[in-house]
Amino acid sequence: MLNKLLKQLRQYNMVASGDHVICAISGGADSVALLFGMYLLREKLGITLSAAHFNHHLRGEESDRDEQFVRQLCDRYDIPLAVGESEVKAGKKGLEAAAREARYNFFATLSGKIATAHTADDNAETLLMHLVRGTGLRGLGGISPVNGNVIRPMLTVTRQEVEAFLQEYCLRHITDSSNETDAFLRNRIRHHVMPLLKAENPSIARNL
Question: Mean pLDDT across the chain, nearest whole number?
Fold first, then answer.
């Protein structure tokens, strides 16, 4: 995973020596892998590193548990952490969109490049969501590797590779219970469509 991370960072010139990179971290598997991967690569890249966590207060005590987990993880490796919070409520575009908007509004207040942990599987799911809803060429492009000061170094890393990386370094992570429901289109694609496609072609996420 580290090799893929480094290759993606260099291919798209995501960072330069002297940059400050802020890893967005929820406490889930992907974001923990990104933070630790960037932590291991920070000296080779010549960057300074910190983390940012946003508490949406959508899941009560579980949201507070997520924040506490992230604080403890960053303390363990002496990684500076910025925490934001808001009582997010669903808007015209739904709860997911409102949460994303609140999260990125918080990131915009921070000084540095924001690294998010979108993986190849996330990209494949996004592409399928665009196809289901109807899209043009821009939507068929999936998730952009670089968007302003937001960088996505893990777009070629699969979820399977994330899990292997966490196991290799004995890294814990937490699970967001909302990811287990079928209330959102992304979850339905993840739970029901992607397994069928992977049965036909195990490399479907990479290919998409």
Answer: 90
Angle at 150 between CA 69 and CA 99, to 5 degrees: 55
Q: Which of 17, 164, 167, 181 is nearest to 95 (CA)?
A: 181
Residues 6+ apart with CB under 8 A from 112: 19, 20, 21, 22, 50, 149
Give the whole-angstrom CA distance, residue 61 versus residue 79: 24
Collapsing DSSP states into helix, strand and coil, what is residue 146? Answer: strand
| pLDDT greater than 80 at residue 97 | no
Q: Which two tokens stand for residue 19?
A: 């940059």
Strand, helix or coil at 51?
A: strand
Task: Give the pLDDT confidence score for residue 96 in this predicted structure.
Answer: 75
CA dihedral (175, 180, 181, 182) positive or negative: positive
Tens of pLDDT, residue by residue over 107-163, are 999 999 999 999 999 999 889 988 888 888 888 888 999 999 999 999 999 999 999
Cα 167 to the chain's mean position, in Å?
18
Place of tokens 């694609």: 189
Using alpha carbons, select from 125, 149, 116, 134 the residue that is nearest to residue 204: 125
